[in-house]
Structure formats: C-alpha cells, structure tokens
Amino acid sequence: MPRRRYALRDRIAALDPERDHLEIYQLSAGREFPWDYTRALEFALFRTYCVPSISRLLAATGEFEKRPQQRYDDTALLMAEIAAHGYDSPRGREALKVVNRAHGRFAISNDDMRYVLSTFVHDPIDWLTKYGWRPPHEHERLAAFHYYREVGRRMGIRDIPESYSAFADFKRSYENEHFVFSPTNQKIGEYTVGLFAAWFPSFLRPLVRLAVRGMLDEPMLRAFGFRPAPRWVGAAGDLGLRTRAFALRFFPPRRTSVLGVSPGNRTYPGYPAGYRPSDLGAPAPPDVSTSR
Description:
Elements: H1 7-13, H2 21-32, H3 34-48, H4 52-61, H5 63-66, H6 68-85, H7 90-103, H8 110-131, H9 138-154, H10 164-178, H11 183-198, H12 205-215, H13 218-224, H14 231-248
Helix pairs in contact: 2-3, 2-9, 3-8, 4-11, 6-7, 8-9, 8-10, 11-12, 12-14
GO molecular function: oxidoreductase activity
Protein name: ER-bound oxygenase mpaB/mpaB'/Rubber oxygenase catalytic domain-containing protein
InterPro entries: MPAB, MPAB/Lcp_cat_dom
C-alpha cells in the first residue's frame, strides 16, 4: 500500500487520545472513515430502539410516524455540528442546547441516556473493526470514549464510566437486561426500516428491508420481533462490506473533512449554508407522559 494512505493514521498515533480527543475524532470520523461512521451511528441509534423505555418514548411523541426523515436529519446534523466545530465552540454549544432542550421535555432516565451514549462510542469502533479499510488505532478507540464522555457531561449525563472498557461493560450489561420485545420496539423498528428503504427506488425497497434484517444480530431481532433474514443475506452483506474495505485501501487519503457538510440530507437542502443549529429539531410536542 502507498505509505501516504496511512499518513492520517500515523498522525493520530502521534497525538494524545485524552488531550487531543477532539482532533483525533475529527480525523477519524471526518476523513478516514466518514461513510463507515455514518452507517455505524445509524445502526447505533437503531440498536437503542430495542430498549422498551426508549421505544415507548419515541412512539409516544409520534415523530417517528409522522416525520421520520426530519428526525433522522436533525439528529445526524446536530451531532455532526458538535463534532465538526467542537463541543465548546459557538456552533457546538448551540447544537448541544438544541439537543438538551429536546431531551429536557421528557422524563428520560439517566441510565437510558448513558446507554445511548455508550452506543455512540462502541458501535462505530465495532463496525470499523469488522468493515473499516484498516483496523481502528487504539488512540481512535480511546479518543472516541473521551470525546463522547465530554459531550455526555455537557448533556448532564451522570455517572459515565471512567474508562473505555468499563463503558463497554456497562453497555453489554444494559443490553443483556433491557433488550426484550415490546410492541413499541417493533413499531419504531418498522418505521426505521421503512425510512432506510425509502432512500432507494421503490423496486429495491423490499430487498433493502431484507438486507437491514440481515445486518441485525439475534438479540436485536428478538427485541424487535423481526423474522431473521435468510443466512445468505447476511453473508452477502458482510462480503460486500469487506470487499469495499479492501478496495478503499488503494484510495488516496481524503484531503478535507466532511463533518458538518451534508448537502445530501433530505430535509434541509444545501445545509449548512443559511442554517444555524438552532434551526434544527422538532417543535415542542403536546404533553406526553413518559414516566416509568
């Protein structure tokens, strides 16, 4: 492989994963693995819908039924704003304010918030370990933890574990206890699969729905109440992603970051031109009881 293909990895290796976590995360998510991070974070959010207390809240708001694409774009763009500009930058603080305002309308447990945060740390790293064009560097793993730990603190999330491995243990334990079937899991899961399928021409949508099921592990399938896809579907998807990863090894490194640049989003044409983070997010919903 051309040595310059690994120039950014070498730059990441020379940085401190705690002190320089924002720079490392920006290099990793914005230049080394932008497509992979996008897909992995989509599935990370999808994974959280396997927790009945989370899916119950989402079902009660009605937003996933009425405006699934806007809710997807709001979440993706707000998180990208924080990553692209930094959580203490003016745009980053504005994006965090929008996120905190949205969460503050509901009685969301701290444990559910911690769990969602853990998926943002660990699911992309797990994805890159399987499907990245190179394995994630240890500094990328640790930087993702330190980055989201700081984001979580600014969201008021308490008792975030002190290390990458401890957060992974919390995530695994939470899923073992809380991944159980509920009708709202299934409802939100179906809306989400429908959203993914809607991005493709109508004749491909049944195949997309099948492919999404093929990407889900057994605990997710049980929690959603979805039938497993035939084994060949998962095998074909796995082969396709691994083939893509191999081919990308021969591509030159990306010169500019794509974080915070989303001309292809379907709700805000031309974003970020003419938009502020405060323009994103759902309006205040009618009174929704979410206490558990």
